[in-house]
Write a structure and sequence with these properties.
By secondary structure, this protein is of the alpha+beta class. The protein contains nine helices and ten strands. About 5% of the residues have low confidence.
Length: about 230
């Protein structure tokens, strides 16, 4: 069972900034169905409703890949991250990039094959973790893509046979990133380009093939509000 950060329609007590873990923003149906809306790693923040003046979210936030993060109480965030601050402006640009990602996912889920979508999802994860290896089970991946587990199993076998990945007992290894990008749809590149455009100024890290650690908001966060952060491991 994945750890839940936020439950639907419940008060947001903390905002989170992953450093090397990944958090999924998901929608949950009445019958328990789950599908992912967005993925957040060290390029962003979980708790955007607080930034925009809200105090809860309709969906759910769950830990996708375990890792480290920092968090801040929502009331302190509102007090410290004011509209005239550099961090506030950066997070607004991040929010715009996140909206682009969500809207592109709608198109991707409707128009592209499960194989293309799976490659895109693996690339997104690879960009946000600090390793070619991460833990991932097929049932969870199927939920994130909104398909049945046998479908994901078939895609994973195809990618593994082609040498793009290695997968065994819930452990995923990216073996050939370049070929994975070639097998992906254009949605990955569109979203990546938008993140680069919006976040390249005022952040510490560059997202490219040589450094896949996202755009790294940690430096900006710690510079402004380090004494208000709680570190999670």
């Amino acid at each position: 069972m994945k750890q839940s950060i936020y439950a639907p329609n419940q008060l947001i007590e903390y905002v989170y900034f992953p450093t090397d873990g990944i958090i999924s923003l998901v929608n949950v149906t009445k019958n328990g169905g789950i599908v992912e809306a967005a993925t957040v790693g060290n390029e962003g923040m979980v708790g955007i409703p607080v930034l925009l003046g809200g105090d809860e979210m309709v969906g759910q936030a769950i830990v996708q890949v375990a890792g480290d993060a920092v968090r801040m109480k929502a009331d302190i965030f509102k007090r410290e991250v004011t509209p005239d601050s550099t961090l506030h402006n950066l997070l607004l640009r991040y929010t715009l990039a996140l909206m682009t990602s969500i809207s592109q996912s709608v198109a991707c889920n409707s128009l592209h094959s499960v194989k293309q979508r799976c490659c895109r999802w693996l690339l997104i994860c690879h960009d946000r973790v600090k390793s070619d290896y991460f833990e991932l089970n097929q049932e969870f991946l199927a939920q994130m893509l909104g398909v049945q587990r046998p479908t994901v199993s078939g895609v994973a076998i195809t990618l593994q046979q082609a040498g793009l990945i290695r997968y065994s007992r819930g452990k995923m290894t990216i073996c050939d990133r370049r070929s994975l990008e070639a097998a992906c749809c254009e949605c990955y590149g569109i979203v990546k380009q938008e993140f680069e455009r919006l976040l390249k100024d005022g952040v510490a890290q560059k997202w490219n093939d040589g450094n896949r650690n996202g755009f790294g908001l940690e430096a900006q966060i710690q510079q402004q509000v380090n004494d208000q952060l709680e570190h999670l491991h």
